[in-house]
Amino acid sequence: MKIVSVEPIGISEERAANIAHELAAKGHEFICYRDRKEDAATLIERMKDADEVIVSNIKIGSDILSQCPKLKKLNVAFTGLDHIDLAYCHEHGIEVVNASGYATEGVAELAIGLMLDVYRRITALDADTRKGGTRNNFLGHELRGKRVGIVGTGAIGIRTARLLQCFGCKVIAYSRSQRQEVLDMGIPDVSLEQLMQEADIISLHTPLTAETHHLISRELLALCKPTAILINTARGNVVDIDALAEALTEGRLAGAGIDVFEKEPPLATDHPLLRAPNCVVAPHVGYATREAFDDRIDIVLSHI
Questions:
Q1: Closest Cα partner for 96 from 79, 74, 77, 80?
Q2: Measuring CA to CA, which residue among 280, 288, 182, 293 is closest to residue 232?
Q3: Are strands 73-76 and 52-55 parallel, antiparallel or unpaired?
Q4: Domains (ranges, CATH) in the chain?
Q5: What are φ and ψ of residue 209, in 5° steps?
Q6: Most buried residue, 6, 18, 61, 241, by most Cβ within 10 Å?
Q7: Catalytic residue IDs
Q8: Measured between alpha carbons, how far apart are the two ends of the chain, in Å?
Q9: In the 8-state DSSP scheme, what is residue 267?
């Protein structure tokens, strides 16, 4: 078999050489490209003769897949699969596996970090302090005692809930399928409408599917308390971004912490969330920790 990693995914040159040596001893070829290219022409050139391809969050559509006649498996070094043409893969018998679980801790911790930043205005106060500013009578908020609504109770949602309980938060949750683990944690399972109405903090942890596209709609945002904040470390299109920006600008929502967008950053300079007040943004870094990348490599290798 010819196994190609179209990008490094954090694999060092030394480790790539060791992997290639181990696979060669079993009669397989392993190539790990040392740069990341996202254009179709380069990806086709790298993938066209491969039996198995390793890729992270680079978009792989039918235009690329159709030029890879030997491809049997896509080994996706990522949790989400919305950047992969799954319909084409299913139709042509290409197995798709992901690296589920590698970023659970990293994303959960970033969600907590965004909550703290929005509540304590850490980013904004840092900028003010560097310009000679003072506290200027600012009062932040604590996580303690806040009612936090977790939307999506997969591994990341559950881990975030556990961390929040350590902060003294009262956690409620919405998920399309009820999980016994969540009930055992003493977390009530509520409707999405009830969650949006009651939560001081809304934290999104649901995958992007046809059903969850713009799940957090203009209508649901209208149910929120004006003191509520929204945190999104899931997928950008789970939220109606324009409606969110309007709610923040009009004071119908107190703040937001956003790590994911409709498309990967860099963002356009006129992106609505860049003009919205008390909105902390990050360039999709929830999964990006040294520990998570090491775990991801191990998961990817286990799939080969």
A1: 74
A2: 280
A3: parallel
A4: 2-102+290-303 (3.40.50.720), 104-281 (3.40.50.720)
A5: -135, 180
A6: 6
A7: 235, 264, 284
A8: 10
A9: P
Q: What pLDDT is attached to residue 8?
A: 95
pLDDT of residue 178: 84
Residue type, 48: K
Would you say 161 and 171 are in contact if contact means Cβ atoms under 8 Å apart?
A: yes
pTM: 0.88
The pLDDT assigned to 205 comes to 98
Tokens of 112: 């907590």
Tokens standing for residue 91? 């139709």
Q: Are strands 147-151 and 73-76 parallel, antiparallel or unpaired?
A: unpaired
Q: Chunked in runs of 10, what are the mean pLDDT values of the chain (304 residues)?
A: 96 95 97 97 98 97 98 95 96 97 97 98 97 96 98 97 98 93 96 98 95 97 98 98 98 98 95 97 96 94 94
CA 293, CA 13: separation in Å to the nearest integer? 15
Count the Cβ atoms, other than its own, within 10 Å of residue 171: 25
Model pLDDT, residue 80: 86
Distances (CA, A) of 80 to 96, 124, 131, 207, 209: 11, 31, 40, 7, 10
- What are the phi and psi torsion angles at 230 (to 5°)? -120, 135
- CB-based burial label for 96 (10 Å; 0-12, 13-18, 19+): middle
Question: How far is Cα 285 from Cα 11, in angstroms, rounded to an integer?
Answer: 18
Query: What pLDDT shows up at residue 158?
Result: 98
What CA–CA distance (Å, rounded) separates 179 from 189?
Answer: 9
CB 143 within 8 A of CB 169: yes
Distances (CA, A) of 20 to 5, 13, 17, 80, 268: 11, 10, 5, 27, 40
CA 50 – CA 286 distance, rounded (Å): 30
DSSP summary character for residue 129: H
